[in-house]
Specification:
This protein has 247 residues and is an all-alpha fold. It has helices spanning 27-56, 58-65, 70-89, 96-113, 116-120, 123-146, 152-175, 178-207, 214-243. The chain has one domain. Helix content is 77%, strand content 0%. The relative contact order is 0.19.
Length: 247
């Protein structure tokens, strides 16, 4: 049984990177970015394990996808959005350990909410699309890190396009148009490819800032990992809609 997926994006909360213009190649910048990608990979690994377990473990699968547990599935589907909002709005007030626990919990529940993918699509096509998404994401992350061109204007347009995708996805949830879904997917690929480069550049600028340090910088690193995680997952989902083979 397929559960509808929604797109979550940390950029929607308007946290600020804008205090920095200069990009500085220092050890601290590299350390910050390495920490961001480390947490992103941890989140992806945990999500993958949870998705796999809830797709092959029969008791877990029966529990989540039983017809009488529709409210449970809806709660699991919406829970990642609640975690994103909690982490984003609680950045200043919550301690780093609390944010870390929330981030790990988000990764697990996100994986559970995406377990339907392994039931709806063949394993080979999921793996193929995952590898494709990884290559595209890695290429754009490198581009965003190395480019000297300011991507702020492009990022603003992409975020506007993202809101358009969200609105169109909600509308299409009710009308169920396959043509609109195809258009959303193609536009979504372009948007999340661009946002990957934009977000990496903004994180690099943040790492070079002298105004952000200590615990706040560690917290923003977690938020950055969340942002890149969502860029990757949404890119993967858009590509899967286009090229995945259903069972």
């Amino acid at each position: 049984m397929e559960t509808k997926d929604f797109n979550y994006k940390a950029n929607e909360v308007n946290y600020k990177y804008d205090s920095v213009v200069q990009i500085d190649e220092t050890a601290s910048v590299r350390k910050f970015m390495a920490n961001v990608f480390m947490w992103m990979f941890v989140a992806l690994a945990l999500s993958s394990v949870c998705a796999y377990e809830f797709s092959i473990n029969q008791p877990l699968k029966d529990f989540l996808y039983a017809p009488e547990n529709g409210l449970l599935r809806l709660g699991v589907m919406l829970a990642p959005l609640a975690f994103v909002l909690a982490i984003s709005f609680g950045l200043q007030k919550m301690s780093y350990p609390v944010l870390m626990v929330l981030f790990i919990a988000f990764s697990a529940i996100m994986g559970i909410s995406l377990s339907w993918i392994l039931l709806a699509y063949t394993a080979s096509s999921v793996l193929g699309v995952f590898i494709t998404a990884s290559v595209v994401f890695g290429t754009m992350a490198i581009a965003g890190y190395t480019t000297t061109k300011d991507l702020t204007a492009m990022g603003s347009l992409l975020i506007m396009a993202l809101w358009g995708i969200i609105i169109a996805s909600v509308v299409n949830y009710f009308i169920g148009s396959s043509s609109l879904s195809l258009v959303i997917s193609y536009i979504g690929v372009v948007v999340f490819v661009g946002l990957t480069a934009y977000d990496v550049q903004k994180l690099k600028q943040l790492a070079a800032s002298e105004d952000v340090d200590g615990t706040l910088k560690s917290k923003l690193g977690l938020l950055g990992a969340l942002t890149l995680y969502l860029d990757f997952v949404n890119l993967f989902l858009m590509l899967l809609r286009l090229f995945g083979r259903r069972r």
